[in-house]
Amino acid sequence: MQNGDRTVVVGGQAGQGLVTVGTLLSKILVRSGYHIVVSQDYQSRVRGGHNSFAVRVVDDDAFGPAETIDILVAMDQDSVDIHGPQMTSSAVVIIDEAFGMKGDSFLLVPYGALAEKRYENTVALGVLGVLLGLSREAIAGALDEVFGKKDPAVLEANLRVLDAAFQWAAGQSDRSRALPPVDSPKPLLMMNGNDGISLGALSAGVRFCSFYPMTPSTSIALNLAEWGPKEGIAVEQAEDEISAINMAIGASYAGAPAIVPTSGGGFALMTEAVALAGMTETPVVIVMGQRPGPATGLPTRTEQGELMFVIHSGHGEFARAVFAPGDATECFDLTRKAFDIAARFQGPVFIMTDQYLADSYQAVEPFDGAALQEIPSGISTKPLSLPYRRYEITESGISPRLMPGASEHLVVADSDEHTEDGHITEDLGVRIRMVDKRLKKSAGILREVVAPQYAGPEKPDLLLVSWGSTKGAVIEAGRRLRDRGKATATLTFSQVWPLIPDQFIGYLTAAGEVAVVESNATGQFAGLIARETGYMVNKRVIRYDGLPVTAAFIVDRVAG
User: Fold this and answer.
1) Is 220 helix (H, G, I), strand (E, B) or coil?
2) Closest to 125 (Cα-Cα) out of 19, 3, 15, 13
3) In angstroms, rounded to a whole number, what is the distance separating the alpha carbons of residues 452 and 331?
4) Do the Cβ atoms of 19 and 12 come closer than 8 Å?
5) Do domains 6-186 and 191-371 have the same CATH topology?
6) Nearest residue to 262 via CA among 247, 281, 278
7) pLDDT over 70 at 2, yes or no
8) How far apart are the first and last CA of the chain?
9) Which fold, 191-371?
10) CA–CA distance from 537 to each of 207, 359, 558 (Å)?
11) CATH label, 453-558, candidates 3.30.450.20, 3.40.50.1820, 3.30.1330.10, 3.40.50.920
12) From CA 51, how far away is CA 48, in angstroms rounded?
């Protein structure tokens, strides 16, 4: 076990409140100065079916999801059977004494004697707090945030239950799994990937969000809807995905920076409009929250199966950028960059996440709002001569963009091929010049590409390559392998299109062996590297059972 490495899993059926316990515990840990990695496993149903909420306490944020369990809070008997293989030899199972379980690993809690059934989650939270060495004040503060403003009487009842649980658990000192104290804990934020995207969009000046609900991206729109009245953001739940993206393109045409969160099945309906944004040169940011397909697939599990789909989405040829953040901080930073690229180069930009990253809470250092630079709107402020040419052919391929109705100029857009002033044409010479103009923007986007992050020895025996959400697991696997004496380096990509081979080909050729880690069945990123560089990756570590990649999963497949 590492210095403060502990994993707590709350298991039970949907509707039993396990997410409440897990979320409150995560918040308390972060406020106490600990770093966490959360992974949620849930079925596509409102009630019933086994769910779990895993909170791993780690030394910093560069770790993958939990693999073993030190404390299991079993809300039902099935949780014991399901999670038994993951439990360490010294694991503790917190379970209601009413289930009649027997064995040294069980901590039988008299839930019925400590509280009414509706407060059993607070009992579990109190017992957990004692076992982990958390303060009563920290837990009470978290409860106050949840219940204090809603109903003071309910808060008071929860605090009484918390005290009863603390008093009972204090007599179970032999079951302690106390975390090492954090000296002078610095302020940290608790957020998941979708929170990071939402905050990044807010800081980038988003003014419009349209969506059709689809796991795992919906909470981005819900966050923006909550902040909308105060921040001036219009959020529209459309009747379908086609309407959602066309609304966003329309809002952007009118000058409002726009975002569309969706998933694979929803995005499949949006691809015609992606080409519309390419042809009309309209900025729009699209969040692709991946989950296993085809069709409905496993709607609440995780996968990275849409990489090639997004890179090639939309008919015809036009410039685009595709980002793939690996943690909540990158979700924030790259969402800001996505809005910047979309505005400056006037077209669609994509952010690729997945269920694991969307739902994974992490401890994040607070963002310095005062240090953030304003994202330019991309709307021209320079005086323009008449007649205004929306699609003027320029050296960079970027034409002056105006808001319709905001000046004396007539702003014309056309989804057909068009002349510089925006009117439809079938002049084939103009067609060639317009295609070349739009593709010229690719050169500008290339100059903005985020280089992959390399860590490790210069000429490693093994290089682990990843993109997106597998970042933490890959970094942790690299550390484990180095601890075993294997010279291992890591190369993590947070932008997957366009690629600049000169940024990374040297790392590939210097390594004795290269393994690309990704959550899909066909090794899509490994194939993309081969296509763009000619370098054939000699090992692929792939997972496509719907569960997130862990460090142990990687090590088991590359050690030797």
Assistant:
1) helix
2) 19
3) 15
4) no
5) no
6) 247
7) no
8) 23
9) Rossmann fold (3.40.50)
10) 43, 31, 14
11) 3.40.50.920
12) 8
Instruction: Give exposure, 57-80, as e/b (b: 16+ Cβ within 10 Å).
Output: bbeebbbbbbbbbbbbbbbbeebb
- 51 bridge partner residues: 12
Read off φ and ψ for residue 276, nearest 5 degrees. -60, -45
Quote the DSSP letter at residue 53.
E
Domain ranges, ordered by start, for the chain:
6-186, 191-371, 453-558
The backbone torsions φ and ψ at residue 211, rounded to the nearest 5 degrees and listed phi first, read -160, 160
pLDDT class of 1 with cuts at 50, 70, 90? very low
What number of other Cβ atoms are within 10 A of residue 255's Cβ? 18
Inform me whether the pLDDT recorded for 501 exceeds 90. Answer: yes
Q: What are phi and psi of 301, to 5 degrees?
A: -110, -175
pLDDT at residue 447, as a whole number: 97
Average pLDDT over residues 344-370: 95
Average pLDDT over residues 51-55: 95
pLDDT over 50 at 191, yes or no: yes
- Asked whether the beta carbons of 216 and 351 are under 8 A apart, the reply is no
Q: How are beta strands 189-191 and 348-354 bridged, if at all?
A: unpaired
Answer CATH for 6-186 from 3.40.920.10, 3.10.450.50, 3.40.50.300, 3.40.250.10: 3.40.920.10
Q: What is the pLDDT of residues 287-338, one digit of tens each?
A: 999 999 999 999 999 999 999 999 999 999 999 999 999 999 999 999 999 9
Residue 464 CB coordination number (10 Å) = 30
Arithmetic mean of pLDDT, 235-256: 98
DSSP of 85-145: GGEEEEEEEEEEGGG---STTEEEE-HHHHS-GGGHHHHHHHHHHHHHT--HHHHHHHHHH
Q: Judge if pTM exceeds 0.90.
A: yes
- Write out 421-455 in H/E/C secondary structure: CCCECCCHHHHHHHHHHHHHHHHHHHCCCCCCEEE
Q: Report the distance separating Cα 412 and Cα 395, nearest Å.
A: 21
Q: Are 236 and 249 in contact (CB under 8 A)?
A: no
Length of the chain: 560
Spatial separation of the C-alpha atoms in residues 290 and 356, rounded to whole Å? 9
**Per-residue confidence (pLDDT) for residue 44, from 0 to 100:** 79
Q: What is the 3-state secondary structure (H, E, C) of 241-267?
A: HHHHHHHHHHHHHCCCCEEEEECHHHH
